[in-house]
Amino acid sequence: MQIKARAIQTDNQRDAPAPAARLRVREIGEADLGAIAALLHRGFAFRSIVYWLRGLERHANRPRPPAYPTFGYCLDHGGAPVGVILLLFSEAHAGAETIIRCNVSSWYVEPSFRAFAPLMVRAATKDKRVTYFNITPAPHTWSTVEAQGFSIYCKGQVYGALALSRPARQAKVEQFSEEVVEGLDDYETDLLRQHVAFGCLSLVVRDGAKAHPFVFQKHRVKDIFPVYRLIYCREIDDIRRFAGNVGRFLARRGGLLVRFDANAAVPGIVGWYSEKRGRKYAKGPRPPLLGDLAFTEAALFDS
To answer: 26: which strand partners?
Structure first.
């Protein structure tokens, strides 16, 4: 897709000089990654270039659905990226069904090219077979995201002291290893394995003959207070059912609070629910389930 910069101008741009070279929206290639990381660092100064390169490398090295962009799209001006939208494609399984989904991750456009950002967004989210979702929309972008056709699927999040909940009787928590796979299907086994490689903590809770997979990511609030974030569970109700068991396991590893997606406070869990942060949007045939952030920026970049 190629356009002349002067051919599409908004009222806000008419007094600004039009870019001399042609603009085009194109896929990001491996040769662009240094420039893309630098561009994202300009847009998100609190994230280092190393942070972006590490996450992009993890994404590039894992299995992904074929026939989709590896990294996403950029707005190219004379051969140099001036805008970027990262697309993290993955396959999710629901029984025998395979769902193609895409985490629309961080995006940024240089100020003088902001009027052309919609071209990049349209190119990035045009496939109606794909479920697109945004897990980190800044509050000031919520109205823009909704105007792009996205709907809220997660309103907020809970910070819970799970260790204070009553443990489920006879439930046992095990750290995932290649010897701890009984009761898991191939998809979940591989999911737990790959997230360990990303630096996450993968667990299996055994309740009799049943196995329940969990993935957590440890981080620090304001770089001080340790919290575990729920990255994956099969059903969000599993975090309530096994709160006491999982909470005690995580507490012994330095995490007294667990953060997880929710649309309301969860009965039986001591903590607080907030809608100030944690809102998430999706559009497409199968919005993600609460508690499923597998293979998203949360796991690939933040671990």
So the answer is: 74
Phi/psi class of residue 120: alpha, beta or left (left: φ > 0; alpha: ψ in -120 to 50)? alpha
- Under a CB-based contact definition with an 8 Å cutoff, are residues 183 and 213 in contact? no
Strand order in the sheet with 80-94: 2-3, 23-27, 72-77, 80-94, 97-109, 131-134, 280-283, 151-154
The pLDDT tens digits of the residues spanning 108-162 come to 999 999 999 888 988 899 999 999 999 999 899 999 999 999 999 999 999 999 9
Cβ neighbours around 177 below 10 Å, total: 12
The values of phi and psi at residue 51, to 5°, are: -55, -50
What is each CA distance from 129 to 19, 97, 112, 166, 242, in whole angstroms? 35, 13, 33, 42, 35
Handedness of CA 235, 237, 239, 245 (dihedral sign): negative
- Which is nearest to 189 in space by CA: 160, 236, 232, 157? 232
Prediction pTM value: 0.88
Q: How many CA atoms lie within 13 A of 244 on its CB side?
A: 10
Q: Are 281 and 134 in contact (CB under 8 A)?
A: yes
The CB-side HSE value for 121 (13 A sphere, CA atoms) comes to 18
Span between the terminal Cα atoms of the chain, in Å: 35
User: Tokens in use for 246?
Assistant: 């999982």
Residue 163 near residue 256, CB atoms below 8 Å? yes
* Phi, psi (rounded to 5 degrees) for 44: -130, 80
